[in-house]
Amino acid sequence: MQLVYKTYSSAELAYREAKERLLTGALPGGELISEGEIAADLGMSRTPVRKAFLRLEVEGWMRLYPKRGALVVPIPATEAEHVVHARYVVETGAVHAVVARQRSALITELHASLDRQRELAAAAEFERCAVADRDFHRTYVVAADNPLFTGFYDSLRERQRRMNSAALHRGSTDTARIIEQHMRLADLIEIGDAGGFAIALVAHMSGVHQWEMRGL
């Protein structure tokens, strides 16, 4: 079997690296950075970094100021609130569909995810735990077997990742409590209590993203 390796241009590599740093909080919102800093870190010229910054500006992640640098756009309170509200609508809708059908395979997946979260938390792998957190919620969205739910939920993925990373960097994430709340959500799905799930989801998201929430 022949393996095919994808090669990227310098501009694409710069874009991917800068965006990764932005999403993980290594480049926090409100920070002014220069093309030269990133170029030096990546061992490349400023030209591909400039192209990467322009692309990130178009996507809304940065604002460029000639001769001054690039401002990493902070997470707006309104955007964060909208993401959380959108998640609530999709997740509760998905669970209403899920509880109306056989779901033993889903429960097995959710418990496997919980085990993984516990392992990562015990190893203090908090960034990876945040990814597992997001994947836990996505599992029951996908189980609803509605491609519109899944597609819309996935469109929020990068924003969710940045919000979770921001919470981690603030030290405001209680991982043990989050896992406990995930257990509660899984239990409610298992017994088919969609109404109880909706209430528990509000409590869960309000705790994790309390600084972003405005009256869910």
Strand order of the largest sheet: 1-3-2
So what's the CATH class of the largest domain?
Mainly Alpha
Helical residues, percent: 55-70%
Strand content: under 5%
Global shape: elongated
Named CATH architecture of the largest domain: Up-down Bundle
Structural class: mainly alpha
CATH superfamily name of the largest domain? GntR ligand-binding domain-like
CATH topology of the largest domain: Four Helix Bundle (Hemerythrin (Met), subunit A)
Distance between the first and last residues' Cα: 52 Å
Give the SSE string.
Answer: HEHHEEHHHHHHH
Protein described:
The protein is mainly α and 216 residues long. The chain has 2 domains: 10-72, Orthogonal Bundle (Arc Repressor Mutant, subunit A); 77-208, Four Helix Bundle (Hemerythrin (Met), subunit A) (Up-down Bundle). Helices cover 69% and strands 5% of the residues. The chain is built from 10 helices and 3 strands, in the order αβααββααααααα. It has helices at 10-24, 35-42, 46-58, 77-98, 104-122, 126-143, 147-155, 157-170, 175-191, 194-208; strands at residues 32-33, 62-65, 69-72. The chain has a 3-stranded antiparallel beta sheet. Helix 1 packs across helix 3 (46-58), helix 4 packs antiparallel against helix 10 and helix 5 (104-122) runs antiparallel to helix 6.
